[in-house]
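[Q] Does anyone have a clean structure-token version of this?
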Amino acid sequence: MAELATIARPYAEALFRVAKSGNIAAWTDLVSEMAAVAALPEVKSFASNPKLSDKQVAETFLSLLKSNVTPEAKNFVAMLVENGRLTSLPEIGAQFHALKNAAEGAADAEITSAFELTDAQVKDLVATLEKKFDRKLNPIVKVDNSLIGGVRVAVGDEVLDTSVRAKLQQMYTALAS
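[A] Here you go.
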């Protein structure tokens, strides 16, 4: 995976420089959509078909996007196809998102809850977490019934696990030792 990250980095940095000079929110949505489409197994198979020309692959890929595709984005996709890097778009998207977060002083917070959280609960939780982690957080909320209760929050490599499952595991470890 390190090789893929190394390959994706210059593309992500170039794309981020272009996005900074324009509408970064629109670019963020477009890059996310391109990464999601490129991650599909059918698209990976199509992109690696040697019988298709670069132009056919690029045009077909662009036709799968719902967003408004700018000329810069068309050029970017054409360059990726020409260099055989279309399938690295998910990693490019991840690095682009990390560059955007770093520029904004923000981070993604993966919040896993045992139960569905309301918008108000997420908003309150994010406000508390922003104070704890001392930065703006972009919440990604998931539900995992195996937590039994509570939440598990991951911000980068920092994890805050207040789930019942984690507390039970701690009690088991304490009793077993």
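[Q] Thanks! Anything notable?
[A] The beta strands are 106-113, 136-143, 151-155, 158-161.
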